[in-house]
Amino acid sequence: MESTLGKPNATAILFFCLVVIGTLIITYFAAKKTKTTSEFYAAGRSVTGFQNGLALAGDYMSAASFLGISGMVALSGYDGAIYAVGWLVGWPALMFLIAEPLRNLGKFTFADVVASRLKSGPIRIASAVGGLLVVLCYTIAQMVGSGKLIQMMFGMPYEMAEIIVGVVMLMYVLFGGMLATTWVQIIKAVLLVFGVTVLAVLAMAKFNFSFSTLYTEVVTMYPADNMLNPGGLITSPIDAFSLGLALMFGLLGLPHILMRFFTVPDAKEARKSVVYATTFIGYFYLIIPIVGFAAAVLIGKANIKAIDAGGNMAAPALAEMLGGTPFLGFIAAVAFATILAVVAGLTLAASSAMSHDIYVSVFKKGHASEEEQVKVARISVVIFGVAAVALGILFKGQNVAFLVGLAFAIAASANFPALFLSILWKKMTTQGAVWSILVGSATAAILIILSPTIWVNILGNEKAIFPMKNPAIFSMTASFVVAIVVSLLTPEPEAQEKFEDDKIRTYLGIGAE
Predict the structure, then answer these.
(1) What backbone torsions phi and psi does residue 156 show, to the nearest 5 degrees?
(2) Which of 366, 404, 479, 491: disulfide with 417, CB 3.0–4.6 Å?
(3) What gap in Å lies between CA 355 and CA 348, rounded to an integer?
(4) d(CA 103, CA 268)
């Protein structure tokens, strides 16, 4: 098919400018209300459950979900849909296990929760290491998606596209903090759900709104590829199980998602946030595979790969085919807003780890003025933004959903076991939490480097040292085992006493900020 992707597109540029101007206006007004650390990191705890639910959905329905899953389904069929299901099933666990205690025990970051009854210094250093690793991996995926999208829409070099994304994102976070990021997420979530719904309806119209016709066409066009059965992307059952663990429990360790629970006034609104977020996200993940399968039939795998080897442009290409360049422009602008908002949230999480957990809590022992804290937070934002652009350029050409899957593996291994056990297990100690985070982070990161993704695809070696694509089954288990063994070997009576004292605050919210 003839496509304008890769050439400058006036309609797309118009929508792109409207989105950027609109969101910068929001940032301008948010900047006026962002003076203190509470306003910078937690929007002054003024966000309602419904607003936060939409913002959570916006944070979660990232470029990886929209561009990555649709592309993965278009190229690999059923296995791409595993990502959609895996990312959804973690939400009930988040609601029942984490949301309320997190809001009641924490202040700005998940390290606040783990450190609430343990020794603050070592916990915050270890948490910052784990948190930054997760956020970096997640950011790489978003930056790759954004660079590819802008390159395709504007016909400019990929590296220049990365720099533009980095500059716009920095403006959101530096001046507007969490309040601007929240409103950008809300607007983007509404636009994304609307855009994907229109795309799915237009696609289904081509198949007389019959799923049977759609799937029959898929099987007829690709008889040898087995598109409706597992094995197209993940061939080993253990690898599939490991990926499922990472996707489900990684959610419970994502710093930028956990941070959102500190923006609401109380635990009740935190719980409401998850209910609303699950509704929006569930709907989105239900319809996104339709886009992928329709793209495989209407555009063809060869054409999708010709536009982008990772398949990330399947949804925009389908939008152009079904709605012409105006709809392509709208979808591209929504995708761009999606990426910017998610990267802004990730940058805020990274900034909080560097400034709040390391600089203020460890180096300054909590003694830093509001002005100094906000200044350090903004410097951290710039450092992380530059690193994000550089890594986005380095990982050019990878499928973004797959890269996010790796970020989930680190989150499930580094953050989730320590967070979970510190809330629910009385015998958890400082040493246990620290070693759990460090072992989980290191094991996941090393196994990912030795896996086919990095060792073969990026570094160009012939054969991977670690054969599986996702390491969560080993790294998460190692993190739990280390946490339990080290805690039992290093009993901490003071932490056990605080566990009893914290129960009222954990479950009833009495004493929470």
Answers:
(1) -100, 165
(2) 479
(3) 10
(4) 9
The tokens for 195 are: 């855009």
Distance of CA 145 to the CA centre of its chain: 13
371-398 burial, b at 16+ Cβ within 10 Å, e below that, comes to eebbebbbebbeebbebbbebbbebeeb
Distance CA 245, CA 236 (A): 14
Could you tell me if 377 and 355 are in contact, meaning their C-beta atoms sit under 8 angstroms apart? Answer: yes
CA distances to 37, 184, 187, 480 from 30, rounded to whole Å, are 14, 11, 14, 41
User: What contacts 489, CB < 8 A, 6 or more positions away?
Assistant: 431
Complete domains list, the chain, with CATH: 10-403 (1.20.1730.10)
What secondary structure, in 3-state letters, does 249-269 show?
HHHHHCHHHHHHHHCCCCHHH
CB 382 within 8 A of CB 215: no
DSSP string, 450-510: HSIIIIIIIT--SS-SS--S--HHHHHHHHHHHHHHHHHHS--HHHHHHHHHHHHHHHH-T
Cα gap 295→289, rounded to integer Å: 10
Amino acid at residue number 283 = Y
pLDDT in tens, the chain (513 residues): 566 666 777 777 787 788 778 877 877 777 777 777 777 777 778 888 899 999 888 888 876 678 888 888 898 888 777 777 777 887 777 777 777 787 777 667 778 888 888 888 888 888 888 888 888 888 887 888 778 777 777 778 888 888 888 888 787 777 777 788 888 888 888 988 999 999 999 999 999 999 999 999 998 998 877 788 776 667 778 888 888 888 888 888 888 888 888 888 888 888 888 889 989 988 998 899 999 999 999 998 888 888 877 788 889 889 989 988 888 888 888 877 777 777 877 888 888 888 877 888 778 777 777 778 778 888 888 888 888 888 888 887 766 666 777 788 888 998 889 988 988 888 999 999 999 999 999 999 899 888 887 788 777 888 889 888 888 899 999 999 999 999 999 998 888 888 887 777 776 666 666
Helices then strands, each counted (H, E), the chain? 22, 0
Q: Which residue has the tokens 């290191």?
A: 442
Could you tell me if residue 155 is left (phi over 0), alpha (psi between -120 and 50 degrees) or otherwise beta? left
Yes or no: say if 425 and 117 are a contact pair by the CB < 8 Å rule. no
Vertex 152: Cα angle to 176 and 13 (nearest 5):
55
Q: How many CB atoms lie within 10 A of CB 303?
A: 16
Q: Going by C-beta distance under 8 Å and a sequence separation of 6 or more, which residues neighbour residue 446? A: none
What DSSP designation does 46 have? -
Q: Tell me the one-letter amino acid at 463.
A: K
* CB atoms inside a 10 Å sphere around CB 22: 14
